[in-house]
Design brief:
Elements: H1 2-22, H2 63-66, H3 69-86, H4 91-95, H5 99-116, H6 128-131, H7 139-155, H8 160-170, H9 174-177
Helix pairs in contact: 3-5, 3-7
The structure holds protoporphyrin IX containing FE.
Length: 186
C-alpha cells in the first residue's frame, strides 16, 4: 500500500510537471482517465495581413479585343467593302471612286472601328459630317450599308453580342451621314 502511494505520488508529480508545461491535463491517478480537453485552444487565422488588397476581378475585354484586334477588324472591313460594292442600292456610290480613294476609305474605316471599339488607334480621316457632306445619302442607303456590315460580321463569324455592340457604336453616326430624311407620314 505504501509502495503504491509512493508510485502514485511520483506519477502525479511527473504528470503535473508535464501537463503544466504543455497546458493540458494528462492523467488522473487511481485508474480513471483524465477528462478530455482539446489540444488546440487557439484559432489561427490564415487571412493574411489585414491591409492586403482583395484580388482584382479579371478586366472585361474591350469590344476591340472581342473583334479580334486590328487583324479581326481589317477582315470585317474587307468583307464590308466587298458587300458594299456588290449591293444594288449603294454600289454606285463607290463605283466612281479611284483606287487610291477606295484604299484610303478602307484604311480609315479600319482605324475608325478600331478607335470606336476601344483599340489604341488614331483615326485621321474626316468627321462623319464632313466626309458625307452634300452626298444626299438616304435612309434606304443607310439601311443597306448597315446590312452590308452585318453580313460582313456574319461572314467572319463574329458573335451576336459583338455584332450588336459594334452596330450600337455606329448607330449614333446616322444623324451626321443621312441627309435625306424620310418624309413624315400623313
Ligand atoms: C455605317 C456607317 C458609315 C460609316 C462608319 C462610314 C465611314 C466612312 C469613312 C471612315 C469614310 C472615309 C472618310 C475620309 O476619308 O476622311 C467614309 C467615306 C465615304 N462614305 Fe461612308 N460611312 C458610313 C455610311 C455611309 C453610307 C450610308 C454611304 C452611302 C451609301 C457612304 C458613302 C461613303 C463614300 C462614297 C465615301 C468616300 C468619300 C470620298 O472619299 O470621296 N458611307 N465613310
Amino acid at each position: 500500500m505504501r509502495t503504491r502511494l509512493l508510485v502514485c505520488s511520483l506519477f502525479i508529480a511527473t504528470a503535473a510537471f508535464v501537463s503544466g508545461a504543455m497546458g493540458v491535463s494528462i492523467v488522473a491517478c487511481g485508474g480513471k482517465p483524465a477528462p478530455k480537453e482539446p489540444l488546440i485552444t487557439e484559432t489561427v487565422s490564415d487571412a493574411g495581413p489585414e491591409d492586403a488588397a482583395p484580388p482584382e476581378p479579371p478586366k472585361p475585354k474591350s469590344l476591340y479585343e472581342r473583334l479580334g484586334n486590328k487583324e479581326g477588324i481589317a477582315k470585317v472591313v474587307d468583307s464590308f467593302m466587298k458587300n458594299l460594292t456588290a449591293n444594288d442600292i449603294v454600289k454606285k456610290r463607290f463605283a466612281k471612286l479611284s483606287k487610291e480613294k477606295v484604299e484610303k476609305f478602307r484604311n480609315n474605316l479600319v482605324d475608325q472601328i478600331c478607335k470606336e471599339s476601344g483599340g489604341d488607334c488614331e483615326y485621321a480621316g474626316k468627321s462623319m459630317k464632313d466626309a458625307h457632306k452634300g452626298m444626299k445619302i438616304t435612309e434606304p442607303e443607310w439601311n443597306a450599308t448597315v446590312s452590308a456590315l452585318k453580313a460582313a460580321l456574319d461572314e467572319n463569324k463574329v458573335a451576336e453580342n459583338e455584332q450588336n455592340d459594334l452596330i450600337a457604336a455606329i448607330a449614333p453616326m446616322k444623324d451626321d451621314i443621312v441627309e435625306v430624311k424620310p418624309k413624315p407620314k400623313k
